[in-house]
Amino acid sequence: MHPGRRQRRHAPQDEPSLDRSLRALVDEHSDACYRLALGVVRDRSLAEDVVQDAMIKAWRSLAGFRGESSKRTWILRITHNAAIDALRRRREQSTAPEDLPDDGSGAGEDPAARAADRDDLAALGRALADLDELSRSIVVLREVEGLSYAEIAETLELSIATVKTRLLRARRTLECAVRNREDP
């Protein structure tokens, strides 16, 4: 072995099976991971980076997966942790206004309707952003991913009672924000 070079851990004949296992992991779980990451970090580009990191971490740890939870719950936990880590790193950086992501709204719709929809989404987005990271994660896992209370509790390592309480409070906060938006 040459100094400074790493020895390959897998024989060349193993590579196609590794590619297939990574592809299967990504195909099965990346959409759910993206929605969770986006719900936590609220930035499309950063969410994509989070999912990529989470998929690689999960793939590298796949051999150590003990099966104590579902694979989906396990991968969502990895994604949630990666998203929280990304937020912590991002807090230390600042972003210039011109570097902020575009909202990606489509053309061809009625401009007034698009503006109203954008305003509604912005109000909801602000209300979600005002939630703490844990409550926001719970909302995304329940309302977007459709996980049960038990699955959320397992994913986030909380009690079911805590999940229910946090979700109830978050829903009330979001409802109040929407109601305040509708009242002139």
Q: Can you put this structure into words, describing what you see?
A:
By secondary structure, the chain is mostly helical. It folds into 2 domains: 16-92, Rna Polymerase Sigma Factor, Chain: A (Orthogonal Bundle), CATH 1.10.1740; 111-184, Winged helix-like DNA-binding domain superfamily/Winged helix DNA-binding domain (Arc Repressor Mutant, subunit A). It has helices spanning 15-41, 44-61, 71-91, 111-130, 133-144, 149-156, 160-182. The longest helix has 27 residues, at 15-41. It is globular. Residues 1-14 have low confidence and may be disordered.
Kindly summarize this structure in a few lines.
By secondary structure, the chain is mostly helical. It has helices at residues 15-41, 44-61, 71-91, 111-130, 133-144, 149-156, 160-182.
Describe the SSE topology.
Blueprint: H1 15-41, H2 44-61, H3 71-91, H4 111-130, H5 133-144, H6 149-156, H7 160-182
List the total number of helices: 7
CATH architect. name of the largest domain: Orthogonal Bundle
Low-confidence stretches: 1-14
Portion of residues in beta strands equals under 5%
Shape: globular
Overall domain count? 2
CATH-defined fold name of the largest domain? Rna Polymerase Sigma Factor, Chain: A
Helix-strand category: mainly alpha
Top CATH class of the largest domain: Mainly Alpha
Rg, Cα atoms, Å: 20 Å
Give structural attributes.
globular; Rna Polymerase Sigma Factor, Chain: A; disordered N terminus; 7 helices; Arc Repressor Mutant, subunit A; single chain; 2 domains; mainly alpha; 184 residues
